[in-house]
């Protein structure tokens, strides 16, 4: 993909890759350029911060997929001004821990949360946002 | 406010007005033109559909606030192509029923869910979306 | 089945078919004429509305089976005057999301909710309703 | 009310009276004749059985309101063939115990469950059932 | 077993048999005479009542195993004066529905509840009760 | 009360006294001699062990009332052979933490659990147990 | 307090001050020098990082108190090598969201979680840790 | 391992061994001497007390792994002054019963709780504590 990515998908560990793929499929189907990063808010915080500093110059929407005490989406939302979409992953407790860790953010730092394991909806939401910003999709 | 509204706040009943006010405060603070509608997906569906048909020509982001079996945000998302933000309201069960009714949408019809009773974050999220679409805010 | 259907079973997607079959078995056992439709409240709303407009002239009871943010039963209940039975399906969260999305309806738009994945009870409840309305069953 | 009651509202203790009143208001508004009984499935089982034996000759729909381990609706459903509507009351645990005790009935003994503390919907559901059975309402 | 049973194990359906066997093993190990009945509070209420009327003349402790909206233990407790032990079975919702349906009984009709699927503890508790009543065990 | 106590009510802290009183009322009503002790499993373990060593020579049933991570009933059950009744108290989380900490005991160490805050049922259950052991009550 | 603080109490907003006071009382009682900071992981991340960089040279244990999607304790644990104690605060959902957001950390980044709103136990745990590290307390 | 153990891992039954192994791996990796004991708070209380009396002279941190009504960590915390780390194990209810039984300890008897089944984090937390106490690790 040679175009500048409009969407950044960030996951905290390789075990989230399968879920990320579902988001990628939707973005590919709509011809949205994106990039995928594996960066944990807890274990690769420095690289994550560096990546956010740079990517926030071209990325329009972030999609963060995370399980357990899922801090990644909120962390991103606290460092960029773009909309951040959070996808809770069911690792334990049917994903309820991840859902609450993502959606119950304090005022001022919103995360646009979608359903548990529903990475597709993460992508579909990103596309809705890109569309009102005037970006073209192929579908 | 004479400008065309960019944001539409929709609530299902007058009892949601107090929560809507918190979203309004944030939008006012950022000088975002908006309009507020009281239209239930169950009791005023016809008016709601008519309003959506018209408003989708100028509204950029919808914010829907609802409690209990909170179908309003999903209903809107199934009828417009814009991003729809859902704010679960705690009417019963600490708002867990509303949270799940809003966030667990089927693939293809995403709702950008924020925290329970957190209408402010609904507004903050709308502002993030408007900003990447190039709209100016006064803050 | 050449008789006019008394019961309409509506499911939101093909993945609900197996559960629908359990309801069908009970209705067949009692010789209740019924019809089955696959119509999502979110993805086929227009067709669903058309079907409801027509079927409400002959259907006596609706059975709607749905998982996740299960809006289908409530949607039907808001558009017809007949009793609507909701069957929550366990797709995620053990079906708790579907149960709450179906049962916690606002006042004025009731859904007669039965147990999670218990489509049989949906059918048994329909039969109880038909019986007090004077319809004959073969059992 | 001199007419034969079409609806029977049964509550397990006097503490449920306030909730019963909400159902009564709706039934009165629609001119549906009803009767109200205070009979616990655990403490007045004999009287309850006697009442059910008699009332099932004229009652068309039962509405049972109960909290905690709410066995009343299921008990009635196991002894009459009419539709039984269960209204879970929030006495403890936000009413979740009552909701699950009412809705999760075994196959063959369905209870038409409505929302927690939502006695109004219990009445509205009864009216829908009466209507398809040909009974007239004044609204 | 030729002795008069001291313990009665009652289950609502054949699907509870496996769990009942765990209670039986413990009772056998302690040489406690018991009998096992399959009688649903909802589907065989008449037979259940007859059995309770008779067995309450010789049974010292009842153990009732049930899943879903588990009314069986409470039903027994409302008809006999002996201690009734309730064992919640995980059929749906990890057994939470059964646990709450059994333990949250109204004042005056207690059920001695043990852990989910823990029929062994049902038997161990029965043995503790029998011991203080002076019955001998072989272990 | 000059008779030897048949029931021992144990609470972990003075804040449980109000709930203990409800159990006492029932026991008094039935003329059951009892004693009340305030002994925490965590903070007064030595005194608790001493008391159990002595009281197990005359007490027939223990009632333990506890909130939060309610270990008291299980602790007693592990040190005496008598039946131990556990009453979960709602201090946090609506008493769900106490309920699960009491009822989910490992096999071999059963606690007869009653409803949340339902100390009355704790006493009623104790009376049922005493009755089959041949103790007289005045009611 | 002129001594170098051994404990650092960090809260995300002024609304957590009351809970922090309970931890302070215990630390004062044991004569443990501490300092209190109000620094949100989401709103003051830069200051928080600066503070952690400096304080990790003298602080032995961190206590972080947070509600909702409580990321503060985990954030600290990802940036310092000292033990971090997390105290979930009940702001919404009885504190379950905070509990899960704090305790369900990914492997490698542990947070020592104590009970909901139980800031005292946060302090008591800190004292246990300081004691095995050889620090003296006055009690 | 010839050195005096710094960490004691205690589990209540052999079924917890697999989880214990995960903690052992981490401790081995960091060259922390430890010992592993299988001692139930309910079934081997006497041996457990004896072991704690002795081991508290050399152990610096206890790690207790337990499922269901997990009283083991709290029991240890009530008998030693060292920090006690509790690891909830998912045996039933996704481990929620164990989590609440461990974390919701009364004030004065803290347990440092880590995530469900996350024995690794139990070990990592022990290492953090040992490090501030000046113990060397090989990593």
TrEMBL record, chains A, B, C, D, E, F, G, H:
Keywords: Isomerase, Purine biosynthesis
EC category: isomerase
Entry's EC annotation: 5.4.99.18
MF-aspect GO terms: 5-(carboxyamino)imidazole ribonucleotide mutase activity
Biological processes, Gene Ontology terms: 'de novo' IMP biosynthetic process
Keyword Isomerase on entry: yes
Listed name of the protein: N5-carboxyaminoimidazole ribonucleotide mutase
Gene symbol of the encoding locus: purE
């Amino acid at each position: 993909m040679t175009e500048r990515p409009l969407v950044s998908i960030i996951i905290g560990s390789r075990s989230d890759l399968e879920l990320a793929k579902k988001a990628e499929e939707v973005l590919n189907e709509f011809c949205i350029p994106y990039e995928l990063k594996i960066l944990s808010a807890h274990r690769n915080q420095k690289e994550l911060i560096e990546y956010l500093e740079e990517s926030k110059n071209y990325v329009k929407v972030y999609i963060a997929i995370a399980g357990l005490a899922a801090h990644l989406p909120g962390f991103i939302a606290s460092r960029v001004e773009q909309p951040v979409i959070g996808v809770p992953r069911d690792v334990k407790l049917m994903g309820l821990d991840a859902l609450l860790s993502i959606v119950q953010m304090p005022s001022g730092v919103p995360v646009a949360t979608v359903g548990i394991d529903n990475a597709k909806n993460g992508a579909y939401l990103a596309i809705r946002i890109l569309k009102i910003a005037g970006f073209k999709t192929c579908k």
